[in-house]
Amino acid sequence: MSKLLEGKKAIVTGASSGIGKGIARILAKEGADVAFTYRNNKAGADATLKELGQFGVKVFCMRSDVSIVSGIDAMLDEAVQAMGGFDIMVNNAGITSKYPFLEITEAQYDELFDINCRGTFFCTQRAARHMKAHGGGSIVNISSLSSRASTEGFSAYASTKAAINKFTETAAIELAPFRVRINSVAAGWVPVESEKPNTEEFIREALKHLPVGRFGLPDDIGEMCAFLASDRAAFITGQTYFVDGGQTCLLSIPQRKNV
Asked: Is position 109 annotated as part of the catalytic site?
């Protein structure tokens, strides 16, 4: 039985840990050759490289900072040289930072938008140019449930993710004639290695906001990315899919006590 992405070649940005690693793992598991990037976490990148190798596909690791456009160009050139081209691009590289609105600095704001928005925009543009010249492809941008559900401290971060959703929608119109599809996956609550462990009490309370009764896994996001990157999603473009266990569907209100 053939795998979902057999014969495909993919690039995943920011895959040294967390959601990015899960995405790269599922793409490789489904048969795609994978080139992935990291920025600072070399040990994590080495671990990803070793893990993906078990799937019998070609795997390649690159260091890159997606906030620098010349670096994006160099990264894509390196990936093409290593794999002979690519037809899948997953823009996962990003940062999650929480700042009180009245206290966030210009430098903090710029860092969020440079990596999350600028990086996604120009990675998409450069990847789409390659795909246009080679018959098409699929681009998946990683967004967040924060683009729809609001909470304190995330005014800047949530804005970057909402911008990615709208960018995906509009870019899809221009790229469709070239057989380049582009979609977003809005990731739900997915605990990752870089976060501090939560207490049992916090976990019990948090799960009340997750209708499916569990936190998300990096592989949950990877599964949706693999589908959108595959030929089975050939008629899907310009969409944002919330993979969040139903969290954004839930209206949280105080429970009425029986009297």
From this structure: no
Using the structure block, give the residue that is written with the tokens 């949950």.
220
- Taking only the tens place, the pLDDT of each residue in 218-241 is 999 999 999 999 999 999 999 999
Q: How many CB atoms lie within 10 A of CB 51?
A: 14
For 257, the token pair is 């006590």
| Ordered domains of the chain (ranges, CATH) | 9-242 (3.40.50.720)
Mean pLDDT value of segment 69-90: 97
What count of other Cβ atoms lies within 10 Å of the Cβ of residue 256? 6
- In whole angstroms, what is the distance from residue 240 CA to residue 165 CA? 6
By the 10 Å C-beta count (0-12 exposed, 13-18 middle, 19+ buried), 113 is classed as: middle
Catalytic residue from among 38, 99, 157, 241 = 157
Cα–Cα distances in angstroms (integers) from residue 74 to residues 37, 80, 123, 189, in the given order:
12, 10, 11, 33
Helical axes 218-229 vs 18-29, angle rounded to 10°: 50
